[in-house]
Amino acid sequence: MARINTNVSSMIARNNLGRTNENLSVRLQRLSTGLRINRGADDPAGLIVSERLRSEMRGIDQAIDNSERASSVIATTEGYLAEVADLLNSIKSLVVEAANTGGVSDEEVEANQLEIDSAIASITRISNTASFAGLQLLNGNLDYTTSGVDSSNIEGIQIDGAQFGSNGDLDVSVEVVNAAETASLFLSGDAGATSGELDDSVTVEIAGSLGVQSVTFASGTTMSAIVAAVNTLSDTTGVTAELVSASDQSSGLVFSSTGYGSDEFVSVTKVGPGGTDFDTLDAQGGTATQRDEGVDVTAVVNGAVAVGDGLEVSLNSPALSVQLDLSQNFATTVSGTASVFSITGGGAQFQLGPTISATQNIGVGVQSIAATRIGGTTVEGSRFFLDSLVGGKDNSLLSGNFSDASDILETAITEVSVLRGRLGAFERNTLQTNVRSLQIGLENITAAESKIRDTDFADETAQLTRAQILTQAGTSVLATANASAQNVLALLQ
Fold first, then answer.
1. Contact indicator for 132, 73 with CB cutoff of 8 Å
2. Rg for the chain (alpha carbons), in Å?
3. Per-residue pLDDT tens digits for 162-216
4. SS3 content of the chain, % helix, strand, coil (to 5)
């Protein structure tokens, strides 16, 4: 066949050379970019999966940055709190020193008061100025806000964390299902031959959560006299007494702990020789006993059983972490009616996951540590805070209320310590573990994405060499094919 109008061999060689050049171009692009997939046509399905993985990687990488920044915020806050703790401990030592009235002059007490005033002012200053990148940390800015709280049922609220719904708030329902109780023992008014009086002299040991004291009662001692003697020692024993009926000596009396809960107890034990008529019974007048313990309140918070401690309950769940101080009347009554309030916002919210969702947005509450907000202690029906220790106020050193001042300080120290511990636990158990888990996830996803999208240099190099050889061969063949028409012309010569 010797046709010259159509050079089929040249067309074939040209098409093959074109495909080889295209393949060569692909290999060069993959080797230059390091990617196997540079456009959708390279691997449509692989591109879809790869882009999804890349999106996850960017989200995880940002979540790691968010967690590390949150850790910095918490560490900064804890540093300020450490300084507040040192100031509180200094105030505590000054109060204890001033209580040593037999060895401290009035001038020294006044000097101590000036130091206390300065320390409290410093605590307030820290509360107002502690910040991170313009974010106020300890002035209550990061605390949760509430509404609808019935103070007759709930006297105190500490919200550590809450997840809000789509409406931006969270309703909290609290129902007492098991009432708190004091420890109680009963002594019959018919204890002796004479109704309402002891027949014989007797010595008893009265013990409670605060301590133990021995008291000797003479024969003929009335129930009301026993009540007076026991109540005189209540500050050292934690045990009080009262007649069942104030007008009837024969009604008997009840020994009770001053507080509620399982940490409270009452023990009344007859010691030594003496009367046989001082037998304590359980609170209902039943089996003879020498000791009784209190009962913690049990409450259901948003359907979950909360842990009780005296009149306090606490719940720690992913959706809500809260501590509640219940009123005595509410905690000691099983009414079947819940007390409801709302958490309307606030808290420090940290986005710790790669996607925006309630489960990956973690909140932590940081209450104000101003002197007007910490140390809250009820004394004789009135609630006092740390600022009451300032000169001229109810619990200053000059007031002589050293015990009350000490209780307020202990409460403040506990509050700050608990806050530091809670933030430390959040940093270690939530933030640091979150960073480590995200880093592991990022490594695995990166490896998966690399396997799909990255170039295998060994394979691509081999394919490039092959394409180069084929290009050279194709070029040579095309030249030969194009020269075939010239060979036909030789027939005319």
1. yes
2. 41
3. 888 767 788 999 999 999 999 999 888 766 556 778 888 888 899 999 999 999 9
4. 45, 25, 30
